[in-house]
Amino acid sequence: MENLRQLWERALAPVQGFQSRAGARPGLWEAMRGLLLVRTLPAIAGLVLSYGGFTLAYGRVRHLEGPLWDLVWTRLPAQVTPLDVRAAVASLPILPSWGRVLPWLLVLAPVAVLSVWLHDAAWDHLALWLLRGLGQERSFRVTLVADAEALKVGVIGALADFLKQIPGAGLAFTLLLLPVAVYFWILRGFALAAWHGCPVWKGVLATLLHALLMGLLVFGTLALVALLVYQELRLS
Q: Residue 145 burial (CB < 10 Å; 0-12/13-18/19+)?
């Protein structure tokens, strides 16, 4: 398996790095196995940190602690008493213990890695097809291998993302790491170009078109739902 130094060198010189890797002609199974080996452990850590943060926030809600509740107490409507709020909060369910959740997180982590990989490959392949950047084979299998190799390099960005978990500095690191997130997003374009033999600009543009198409789908769906709700409210 490739070490972190090799992946770092490929991130710094993606054109030569991915062309060299494509020349080694890794198979689909090799690419998928390498992806799981590299990305599963960071995915587990991310899920554990996310669940830990959620349990902490949920605990503050159930115990009526934190600045949010200070604001709630001062803005309660006249017909609602603090006892009503406490009774409603007391009815909230207790979250599962770590002993029950952790096995599911261990299963969910590789599933999440594979889901992201398949999602990116499907959208990247569509975008590259629209840009006429697919190779002569036009094989989705080639895109799967390219994206798996790119996501392996992307583990560097995933590790950097853990800096957002530092208490009190999450927002600052979120802003600082935004260019890093954008870079590792378009990094897949260099891999697509290396495996499909298209110009690099087409590969990079395919990742941007991927983001645009996905955004249009999401916001279009939300707009349609909002329109249907609005029409229902007008008819009622």
A: buried
